[in-house]
């Protein structure tokens, strides 16, 4: 077949320009009809007849054209798609070949992206778990938490008293329902008893939350009545751990606190309620009838569900007016009292929100640095291939085609980096959750996993990363004219240099921001740890010991059992002292109001109050808390002796104008007067950075509880103490259970005030370290490049007798200038941003000069170190080789 | 023949057969059909072109623009390997079918 010479090009054009499909069909059909007409003319027909015949034989032309056009268009589209896929594959092949031949560059970029994406995915999964994912309750946004407070002092917030709760429930018109809870600890089992975290709630509590049991049922109305048969709900975790996921546990009788209780249900696996941490056993509230009548005893946390029409604001107004009304009716207990209301989510995650947002900000900066670093490496690499690009342009490759080629490269790198990043995220998240002490922060945090939304988020940031990393160099390189790169010995032009410099400055600046943040948290932690604690946390071991109520029902049996335990512990070798207390330092505990004998009765909201604990003789000595005045408790201070108390210095400052409280008498609710016999140093309650409140210690033997903490002072390491304590309790108080013994300094490290500084310090510090390494790589790459570009110049200088050292400083100087600019910009940004973390710092101003100076010095050292190494290569240039090469 | 599928399939097979001697343009295919069947098989030219384009879409034939005997631009069709296979298959099917028909009709 003879060829139409223009056919190949025309064919390609046809594929790309679909409208030409129609022309082709017309051409083809015209040829057919003309050929036919010719044949008919040859048979002797006249032209008109011939044309008519030809068209008749052909059939309906318009419908044929339409049909053929449809077929051809379909086919052209298919070919275009196939060609596109083929070209993408080709791009990928070329890109892959290019990347494999430069493994150091490729791996650096892949690992950098993996770090950036991995850190982001890990922190995002935490953010998702805590702030985004729905709480495991029905319509959680309608749930609120309520407290009692005072009109004059909103900060003085407490649980509700039971009668107040009943009145709130009966009088309000804004809540669909209202229930209550409080934390508890239970001794589970009788043979080998364990202490389990638990909670008590009103019977309707789970209905308010809208939570149904996974197996069995939740509580029924009336099961929280005084004297009702004891029933229990198990958490999914405890059910799996202690009952081997046995579904027949429903209806079974278990021993809780030495008394039997019937298991009625198992809660769903996803159920958590942060205020009671990982409570394993839920029971109906068991307060006595007397407790429930005490309008002055505040012990019930209240949760309520808003009516469809109500808002938090309207509910707050309603509750305020209800409380005012109650204040008039019960002036003795409720005068001046108010109610506070807040969304339940705030209660559950409020404390960790700023922490998580901070970490999120830090990983965003990390990712940005990673992107900048990669873009910089791509730019440097692009400069290496200017000739390759120029050749391609000269050969007719379009700008769009080249941009696509370069974008394919960055897409491949990002895809590899993203995949590796998910591995980093998994490891990072495990490490991050491992840093969180069990039960120290909201259990919602522990629910963080790499799930669907996290994957989608990660893919999203990969796309953005690929754009940031690839587009800048792609547009720059493809923009070069063919002549630029082909010129012999062409150097990178100054526009590219300026872009690279900007990227390095950005990188350094962002790193400074993170390093300054880490420095601020580091200084906070140092300040925090240097707080005078009022006791010696070293070589101090603690454990909590619970005796079952049924076996140890009264003060006498409890005192007897605990005395035996303490004596046996003191007899252990290496133990210097031991004592009991209801709440260890840093543990919140309860507080009580009282009146002072000999002082006028105060207004209801001005009544003196103090944090309240009971302790045994030898407790303060074991803690090494100084006895300032008076005496310690004695064994003689028992139920037969007059009531005595020890107070801290803050107590004397608050209520006796700084004079000693020893010898004074106070009256607690429903007690005889209590004589204060001693005064001890201040020991923090709750957060170590909070002001120590007035604290009242009552004699253990005069108000014996069945759950006590023991504090043991040893000479050396705790060593076998945990095992010894378990053995002693087993021997001296059968049925008693020991909760994991723990060194006091570890408890201290886990306390929320220390945790809230140490955790961000560790993480922001780690992120800062990573960005620092990235910045080093960036500066290193840039200086290496500039050395390689100036080989000829350096060779000439060397040949003319320049000292190698002066050449190093010549090369390093440029890097140093950029680092200096980056540090200055970074410090400015850091100081502006620091006010957002001001509330998370302790004892350090967000403008702390030392922190910023440290950050600047660290970065300056890093910048010089990164620059010197490649700069030394400049001195090894052989002048002869260089001068010959071009 | 009322069965459209059969008709379509038959036309496709005939067109493929017409191309076994090398590249031909549509007009040549039409002539060949008419001449070879001595006028028995009368196909509208329109249907023939639809068949050609559809065969091309299926990848059984290829097309290329070339110059005709009288030096005019014409679109030439050519069997592809897949088209050859299809033709063999269809011929075999048709022979089986026709044999069976004869058998029945002569019974």
How would you characterize the overall build of this protein?
The complex is a heterodimer of chains A (886) and B (107). Helices cover 54% and strands 16% of the residues of chain A. Chain A has 886 residues and is an alpha+beta fold. The longest helix of chain A is centred in the first third of the chain and has 40 residues, at 61-100. The two termini of chain A are 54 Å apart. Chain B has 4 helices and 3 strands; from the N terminus they run αβααββα. Chain B has a 3-stranded antiparallel beta sheet. Mean pLDDT of chain B is 86; it is low at 1-6. The interface between A and B is medium-sized, with 30 and 27 residues.
Biggest sheet features of chain A: 11 strands, mixed
Count of structural domains of chain A: 4
* CATH architecture assignment of chain B: Orthogonal Bundle
Query: What is the mean pLDDT of chain A?
Result: 84
Measured distance between first and last alpha carbons of chain B: 22 Å
Please state the oligomeric state of the protein chains shown: heterodimer
N-to-C series of helices and strands of chain B: HEHHEEH
- The tally of domains of chain B stands at 1
Instruction: Give the overall shape of chain A.
Output: globular
Percent of residues of chain A in helical segments? 40-55%
Tell me the overall shape of chain B. globular
Low-confidence stretches of chain A: 1-11, 485-492
Low-confidence stretches of chain B: 1-6
Q: What is the number of beta strands of chain B? A: 3
What is the beta-strand fraction of chain B? 5-15%
If you compute it from the alpha carbons, what radius of gyration of chain B comes out, rounded to the nearest whole angstrom? 15 Å
Q: Estimate the strand proportion of chain A.
A: 15-25%
Query: How would you state the average pLDDT of chain B, rounded?
Result: 86
CATH class of chain B: Mainly Alpha
How many beta-strand segments of chain A? 22
Q: Within the CATH hierarchy, at the fold level, what is the topology of chain B?
A: Arc Repressor Mutant, subunit A
